[in-house]
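Next comes this protein:
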Amino acid sequence: MENRALLVGVTGITGSNLADQLIAKGWTTFGLARNPPKNSKNLHPVAADLLDLENLKIALKEVSPTHVYITTWMRQDSEAENIRVNSLMIRNLLEALAPYQSVQHVALVTGLKHYLGPFEAYAKEGFLPETPLRESQPRLDLENFYYAQEDEVYAAAARDGFTWSMHRPHTIIGKAVGNLMNLGTTLAVFASICKATGKPFQWPGSAAQWNGLSDVTDVSVLAAHLIWASTTEAAQNEAFNVINGDFFRWKWLWNKLAESFGIEAIGFDGTIHPLEEQMSEDAAIWKKIASENGLQESDLNQLASPWHTDLDLGRPIEVMTDMSKSRKLGFTLYQSTEGSFYDLFEKLRADRLIP
């Protein structure tokens, strides 16, 4: 039977890059989103609303995927609403696919909030897990929409007989526009504004993040990991951390990023300087930069997500992730984190998204 992938969230940072890898491997690939790209070569667009079960049933009628990759979520105002909405999305999706009995595997992308807690508690004092983070660590005694999403997959797998895999990346580094969580592009835009205006490239986060060990996940590594786990028998019905495979300290990387833009870095000075505050007046400045440099996107909010970058860089603990489980089962792909950022900056310049 041919591999037929249904990629849910195809316009996002993970989904768009996963689509490229699946298509390159010769998979018949369907990309689901409210407004999927219609001119992407070899991608079959599926326009659907995950919150509308009847709409999904109609949209998925002719798809019959063997593999489903869920790479999207909808941010709400509270964790209770995050749970309600994001679990409903998955429940609707798998219910709409159930009658066809074509699904062999479902892969769900979540993240390290599995260990750190939801946004309201995000690694605050009192919710500090032991690092390195390992898949064997139990769930926190907190409401968490990642747990609700997982439970929907488990329930549907028991009902329909497919296998599953859970993928928990750290901060994802890769190119996307209009993404809710995009630290790499946010820092690229911030550095570009600093260079154009002379504003300091000021470290926005905590002392723990500045001095401690950290890691990130290149989107190409995550995409390869999703395909590997969904096609490797030993990886079925398992949860996995996914990172590049190296560790770094931000006090080293921050200077490297500044050097790549030809600006001077200012490190931790004893105070947190949230990026959301530093960039609060930058929308008009970015429009001017975009106009003067012929950039493709003049809306700062389509490129930068400082609120999420602040959550990552403001944690009161260092965060590093153990990936031994995947290594033992045969996934050996490695990516230099410094290279991840430089590759992203090159792509953003080539696509005229930053000067």
Q: What stands out?
A: The chain has a mean pLDDT of 95. The first strand starts at residue 4 and ends at 8. The radius of gyration is 20 Å.
